Amino acid sequence: MITLAHMLCLSAILFSIGIYGVLARKSLIAILMSVELMFNAANINLVAFNRFLYPDSLWGQGLVLLVITVAAAEAVVGLALVIAIYRNTKNLNADDLHLLHD
Amino acid sequence: MIFTFSMISHLFLIPILPFAAAFLIPIFGRWLPQRGAWLSIAAVMASFIIALDLLLRVGDGSLLLPHAVTPVPWFSVGLYEFVWGFQLDGLSLLMGLIVTGVSLLIQIYSLGYMSDAPRLKQYFASLSLFTSGMLLVVFSDNYFQLFIGWELMGLCSYLLIGYDWDREAAGKAAVKAFLTTRIGDLGFYAALLTIFIILGTFNFVQIEERLLDGGLSSWAITLMALLIFGGVVGKSAQFPLHVWLPDAMEGPTPVSALIHSATMVAAGVYLTARSYVLFSGSPMAMHIVSWVGGGTSLMAALFGVATRDIKRMLAFSTISQLGLMLLGLGVSGYSGSVMHMATHAAFKALLFLAAGSVIHAVHTNDIWKMGSLSKQMAVTFTVFLFGALALAAIPPFAGFFSKDKIIENIYLAHQPGLLALAYSVSGLTAFYVFRVIGLVFLGQPKERDRFAHAHESPWVMTIPMIILAFFAVSFGWILSRPSIFETFFSAPLHHAALEAAIPAWVMITANSVAVGGMGLGLFLYTGDLTRVESLARVFHPIHHFLFRQAYLDEAYELFLLRPVRGLAAGLDWFDRQIIDRIFVDGFKTIADELLSRRTPEEATASGERSGRIQNYLMIVTFAALVLLFWNSH
Amino acid sequence: MILSLLTFFPLVGAGALLFIPRSKENILRGVTFVVSAITCLISFWLWTHMSAMHNDFQFVEKHMWVPRFGIHYFLGVDTLSIWMVLLTTLLSMIAIISAFGIEHRVKEFFIFFLTLETAMIGAFLSLDLFLFYVFWEMTLIPMYFLIGIWGGPRKEYAAIKFFLFTFFGSVFMLVALIAMYFQNNAHTFDFTVLVTQAAQWPRSFQLWIFWGLFIAFAVKIPAFPLHTWLPLAHVEAPTPISVILAGVLLKMGAYGLMRFGLTLAPMAAREMAHTLTVIAVINIVYGSLCALAQKDMKRMIAYSSISHMGYVLLGIAAMDVMGFCGAVMQMVAHGLITGALFLLVGVLYDRTHTRDMDAFGGIGERMPFYTGCMLMACFASLGLPLLAGFLGEFFCFLGAFQIEAFRGLTAVSLLGVLFTAAFFLLMLRRVFFSPARKEWTHLPDMNAREIIAVLPLLALALLLGLYPSLLLNPITQAFNG
């Protein structure tokens, strides 16, 4: 039997992996992928709550659709920025990007 | 008359024609004869003819004064409607004629005087604009409109004084003139506001009605009168705002003749005369007017005695005569002052033009470098002499009639102090003007080459002078004719029907003082100058003091200009260093201080302020976790 | 329909620009100009078709936007907004003409500019507070880039400072907006609804609202002591942006105060009127004195803007017909005249790359037409009658003077008139009317582009000075509304 607890665990693990990726990876693309991972972890959570707690409602799944769309848009913007950075600096190492400091 | 203007509404054309010319000349001047000079002259001549036509109509009785033209609505704000209103009464008609007439003569004179000057378009456009401004002042029926013309004149005065801007002195003089009159204008501006609040209207007729209705506190009336007088002091160069006029002589001489003798500076006197009903309501204001006028008059006359520049002498003379006019108005002597304003316009303009003629010939303003010019420039000498006789108020020249009227009025007002002042000024006036005649036209030439090169001026310059000389001789007599006197000089409220008997000694003293001054001036300064030199040694300290105009310019610099400049610099410093630093960089500094006490470099090294997003995110995540667990308890 | 068209047409134009290749600079310029010209014509059409009898908002468009929060897409125009919109479209068109001289990254410049224009017009036309806030904030981003990329030596600093300062103020406005949303029982951001309820709100609430709104507007106006971003922004911004900044953006603050500040917190406004007057007087005198001390011409004009907006604030604080008429007149006049001044300074800067007054001399000799224009602009700015600036100042003074409590303060602010004359004349003398320097012997006079940009502004200043009924009659009527 798969219970709510299983799903929540799964999403927690995925979320943690995502956070780790965002904070610790050097490559910008890896960071972006980790962000996607975090989005999907949240999605799993939403579906789980919808299925186990409010089976008659559709709100959870509807919100998932919204999140997927937003994630897609954000991925587009993020990739565009990554490409722009690459064009300008030929370097995608997060440690080397500290222009904010000046 | 060729022109068949039958409507009085053509009154508004008088200021508009020169105004239009002022705009057309800069645009089309390139293609016009003499670069627009003739357009300017044509415009003012047309205005003069219209004014003349009006005069003739008044003369034959077909036009009754005062006459108001139906106002043209301009705009309205709230419930008050602003209009373009014009009125015709004795005062405005007289001034209108004088302004257009003198302006016309001076513009013709300028054709000769300025023939080799650059930027003639600007010159004539400014002259036209000025003329229209003065005409607007003179024919307006409300204070607001008058102020507009007033400011326009200020603009033109600035442009024309600074005309020869290649000379630094001219540029500075222009700025000085504008700013000094602006100080006075602040008073006038405040007067406009105050008048509107207290009386609810700007229109002269309505104001007079409300004043006569009574019910206004004398304090209010005094305030309004004194604020207006502020503007007068500025424009008519009275103490303490007189300092701009001597410097304004940097402008071309025709400009000095028009603006700084005959018209613009007289606008202050005109304004006082126009506000006569208002001023009469406040004895204190009248008192101040007469003493400021009288005091300035004496001061300027003393300065005139000590100067060595022919134009400055005339400038001081103007200040002095204007002071006299204000003195007259202050003692309720409306008729004398207005008449003197008229005669002064004629003979002072004449004197300036003649001075210009002299300067044109000898290329200097310094009277100590001239001499014996009567031989080389007979016409100029003669007209200058006539002007001087008028200025000194020697009968039967023009000034005699008007100045004597003022003195009569002072006597009737029982003001012995002011009477003594007036006598002193008369004597000094005659003295300094004939001093100049002696040094410039008579005696021996001081510098041979200048004398040799001097020659009479061309007819463009001499004809206007001769016409003005005619007026200098006869104007006083003309204006004293009863019918004319009645029309132009009867005071509002028909004040002072004081036809009390004037004892003979009043007039005799006045005339003898004048003749005495003239004689002394000629005696000391003609021919052999050794007498003067010994006197000069004795009077040297006083002379030097007067020559430096009582160090008033220096006083202003020290006590007014420098503090203001210092204040400006101080505030600027305050703005940059204090407000900016506090409000802007201050936040940054506070934030830095609160968060860490390390310097930027140290912070970078420790990774805290690295500029790397991941580091920032770590902090964010950590903080979020803390909040999460904290709240969940 | 027409209002939405007017508002978003520039944005559509910006979109169109995206498709034009970067290298075709002349096409970019042409398209931008055509877009702005059409926008200007639309606004002009709108002006001529506004009914003079109507006191209320006209050409209203109202659609539900976010029903959950009572946010509507609500545009409307009345006599106050139409003049602001006219000023915006006209100045935008002129700034674009002036911007033809920009060579660097032309495409981005015009895209940002047109976006800015949409935001400005939208802000003046919004009648829903949320929508207004959106447009208000929307002006910040293009401005940030426009100053930060095409500006002078310290452009980044100026851009950030401008952005943060204005944003700081807007935050207070946001709080006030949200507070009003919760306070009113209809739970809406609709201005027309809020106005009817505003009078009943408790006094302390009104005070909070007023200050929230006022801080935001005060930064924009700019009112002392939140004004320090302006000199920097003006000095560093390129000429066309300075024109827009001075001509339009400053007016947004004053407009916001008039439209929203006074109406949504009437009790508070009346109580605070004295404080506003004090701030206005400080602006006037302090601004003009600081201007007197400047060496950089643009910085001097920036401080003169602070001073002139002080007059506007004085007129608004008076809260009577004359004051409002004066304030609006001064807003329009200042926009035109200061816009012209910045363009003219830009003319000199383009040729010499310096704005230091001490470096010049005798320009009057070399560039007579330019001198004439500068003379006219300066005298208009210092309030010469028959030019628009005089009437604005005069009625602001008169309005304030009518209130007994303000008379002393108003009298003090007259000094501003004197100091303004001082610094303008001193500038004219130092730069134009002095003996010529040999470095400047070969300066060419204004070229066609510069003349076309400046002349309409000066002509309008003269026109409004001679015939102010255009502006004043509708305002007088609107005041009663």
Rounded Rg of chain A:
17 Å
Class from helix and strand fractions of chain A: mainly alpha
Poorly predicted regions of chain B: 1-7
Give the helix proportion of chain B (percent range).
over 70%
What is the H/E order of chain A? HHH
Helix and strand layout, with pairings?
The complex is a heterotrimer of chains A (102), B (633) and C (481).
Chain A: H1 4-24, H2 28-53, H3 59-89
Helix pairs in contact in A: 1-2, 2-3
Chain B: H1 13-28, H2 37-59, E1 67-68, E2 72-77, E3 80-84, E4 87-88, H3 90-113, H4 120-139, H5 143-161, H6 168-199, H7 204-213, H8 218-235, H9 244-247, H10 253-262, H11 264-274, H12 276-280, H13 283-306, H14 310-330, H15 334-362, H16 373-376, H17 378-391, H18 398-412, H19 416-440, H20 448-453, H21 459-480, H22 482-489, H23 504-525, H24 530-547, H25 552-595, H26 600-605, H27 613-631
Antiparallel strand pairs in B: 1-4, 2-3
Helix pairs in contact in B: 1-2, 1-4, 2-3, 2-4, 3-4, 3-10, 3-15, 3-21, 4-5, 5-6, 6-8, 8-11, 8-13, 10-14, 10-15, 11-14, 11-15, 13-14, 13-19, 13-24, 14-15, 14-18, 14-19, 15-17, 15-18, 15-21, 17-19, 17-21, 18-21, 18-23, 19-23
Chain C: H1 2-18, H2 25-48, E1 58-66, E2 71-77, H3 79-98, H4 106-125, H5 129-138, H6 140-150, H7 155-183, H8 191-198, H9 203-220, H10 229-236, H11 239-264, H12 266-292, H13 297-318, H14 321-352, H15 363-366, H16 368-381, H17 388-401, H18 407-431, H19 448-466, H20 469-479
Antiparallel strand pairs in C: 1-2
Helix pairs in contact in C: 1-2, 1-4, 2-3, 2-4, 3-4, 3-11, 3-14, 3-19, 4-5, 4-6, 5-7, 6-7, 7-9, 7-10, 9-11, 9-12, 10-13, 11-12, 11-13, 11-14, 12-13, 12-18, 13-14, 13-17, 13-18, 14-16, 14-17, 14-19, 14-20, 16-18, 16-19, 17-19
